Amino acid sequence: MFSWCTFVYPWCPSWLLLLAIKSGLSNATTKAAKDTKSFIWAVANSTRRQLRKLQGGMVLVKRVFILAIAGLIVLFGSCSKKTPTLNLLVWEGYADPSFVHAFEEQYHCKVSASYMGSSDELTTKLRGGSAGIYDVISPSSDVATSIAAAGLAEPLDLSKLPSYSQLSPKLTTLPLVKLDGKVYGVPFMWGPDPLIYDTTVFPTPPESWTILWDPKYRGKISVWDDLSTVYMAAQVLGYDKPDPAQLYNLSDEQLDAVKKKLLELKPNIRKMWSTGGELTNLFQNHEIVAAMGWPLMTNQLRKINFPVGETIPKENTTGWIDHLMITAGSENKELAYKFLEYMIEAQTQKKVTDVTGYTPANPHAAQFMTPDEIKSLHLDDVDNYQKRLYFWQNVPRRAKYNEIWNEVKAAQ
Predict the structure, then answer these.
(1) Of the residues 66, 230, 241, 382, which has the maximum number of CB atoms within 10 A of its CB?
(2) d(Cα 9, Cα 164) in Å, to the nearest integer?
(3) What is the pLDDT of residue 36?
(4) In 3D, which of 219, 191, 247, 236 has the Cα closest to residue 376?
(5) Is residue 222 within 8 Å of 270, Cβ to Cβ?
(6) What distance in Å separates the CA atoms of residue 205 and residue 200, rounded to the nearest whole number?
(7) Packing angle between helix 276-284 and helix 295-303, nearest 10 degrees?
(8) How many domains does the chain have?
(9) 263 and 406 housed in the same domain
């Protein structure tokens, strides 16, 4: 893209030097001008003083001064323009260069991503004053509602998102990001919290989450440093029956039982992971044999030919719907809208799926997939697959859940 900055700026020293000579600017004054912009002002001021002494100097003063001001306008108006930067706070895999680079090229901008390790980390940062630092966030279904209610996200103008109509109605009709008739987020990706395992240790998929408590795997298990581990233990205890929503509304008595169950698991835990890369390394280094994880890690391990398997045990599992939101404090809202639209377009959704292994919110992405890819993402039988996932919901007593989880982590 042509820029006056790239054309004019290299010549700035030459024509300014000429002005300096003609106006009688001293060498000391010239050296004192540390940069081109200050030099322009020095030339202009000196020119006015010197040329007033000359016959007809006023005409020359005007001409030279106008020329100097014109140069200043060029430098300030063109050369000072910066490439706009869109700042993200998202889950791992949501800003991969394989699809973000094309957006940067198309809109002549830079995308800068920070990654979060849990939903609580996201909300803590936003409530701590970071809502103005980031432009786009990707909250999951357990905190999306509270973020909207707290005024931390911008209500969306759906007319600026043409691809919104292509998104799965099963996802867009949920109340997770709706408040007072306004929509605060767009469904982006969804998926499970599966049991991931080393197939050299488990030739057949483990049938139950209880395998994690087996004493023979002492020090060989990993769990996520997140409330999802609390939900999983509650499932093992049967608190999802008959209503899975109970997982997100546990009583004090039930939470105490969950805490006891998790304390029994601690001898088997090699490490609690907080990032996808951390869990991938634990498997790769053969430090663990099984863990609760994300399809992202399964995808990463398969790409390096690690013998990995993924399953949903008989107790079923929790799942999540990640949304893209624009923060209320964003100063790049128009660019943020363009990013949301780009990310929910079918072709981009396919590219995100290639990186993460997650299921796209836009089912039209299937047109870019092979039959095997469609099957592996359960796009051929979404209804039955989703029956096995208990999508995260808003947790009214989240502080109490975190208190229990922190006590488990602190216990020796």
Answers:
(1) 230
(2) 44
(3) 43
(4) 191
(5) yes
(6) 11
(7) 50
(8) 3
(9) yes
| Whether 340 and 313 share a structural domain | no
pLDDT (tens digit per residue) in 84-130: 999 999 999 999 999 999 999 999 999 999 999 999 999 999 998 77
pTM as predicted: 0.78
Q: Are strands 195-198 and 308-311 parallel, antiparallel or unpaired?
A: antiparallel
Note whether 404 and 271 are same-domain residues.
yes
State both tokens at 296: 């992202």
329 with 256, same domain?
no
Give Cα 42 distance to the centre of its chain. 47
Say whether both 285 and 403 belong to one domain: yes
